[in-house]
Design brief:
The chain is mainly α. It is about 85% helix and about 0% strand. It has one domain. Helix 3 packs antiparallel against helix 4. One of its GO terms (biological process) is sensory perception of taste. It is a multi-pass membrane protein.
């Protein structure tokens, strides 16, 4: 009668195969994580270099574009409305809305890096839950800390981050300032006209 028990040597061999399989998987995961950490660090260093090169110019160009666009729009609406004023307005608004090619390129890189970080967070969570290797766990923790403290942002000298939502907020700010200035100017004009009318009636 055949015994249903597995010989000790077979059991030991099977356990050894399973151990080697999981060790191989752990080594593969660790290698992938290290490559990922290296490439992610390089991308962040490139982004830091871009911030250092273009941050000041973006801060100046954005501030100039915001102020000049508001002033030119108000002057155009108030005075002659000539074609030259309108062209200056369009040029300023173009700079404000789209910045420059280098700026778009820079914050697109930042956006792509941030998206990859968000996608990778789920993978890191699964690795942390499934892989019990201490080396893998340590590498996952290092990457997680890196994601938290260096999430990849393109900014203007650290004053504010530059992305599509920021551009939209700048455009809405310009429109808001123009409306406020026009309403304030209309109110002042109305008060002055009433004052002149009262003075005329008195005399």
């Amino acid at each position: 009668m055949r015994s249903n028990t597995v010989p000790h040597c077979c059991t030991k061999s099977m356990l050894k195969m399973v151990t080697q399989k999981y060790k191989k998987r752990a080594d593969t995961d660790l290698l992938v994580l290290r490559y990922y950490y290296r490439d992610y660090t390089k991308l962040l260093n490139v982004l830091d270099d871009l911030n250092e090169c273009f941050g000041a110019s973006n801060l100046i160009s954005l501030s100039y574009s915001l102020i000049s666009t508001v002033i030119t729009f108000v002057v155009y609406l108030k005075n002659s409305r000539c074609d030259s004023d309108f062209q200056v307005t369009l040029d300023s608004f173009y700079i404000l809305a789209f910045l420059q090619d280098k700026s778009i390129f820079c914050f697109l890189i930042a956006k792509l890096i941030k998206q990859e970080v968000e996608n990778s967070s789920a993978i890191l969570y699964e690795l942390h839950a499934e892989n019990n290797s201490s080396d893998v766990q340590e590498q996952v923790e290092i990457l997680s800390i890196q994601f938290i403290h260096r999430n990849g942002e393109f900014n203007a000298c650290g004053f504010y981050k530059i992305d599509f939502s920021f551009l939209l907020s700048m455009i809405s700010s310009v429109i808001t300032y123009i409306i406020i200035i026009i309403q304030f100017e209309s109110a002042v004009t109305s008060i002055v006209e009433k004052y002149d009318l009262n003075q005329t009636i008195l005399f």
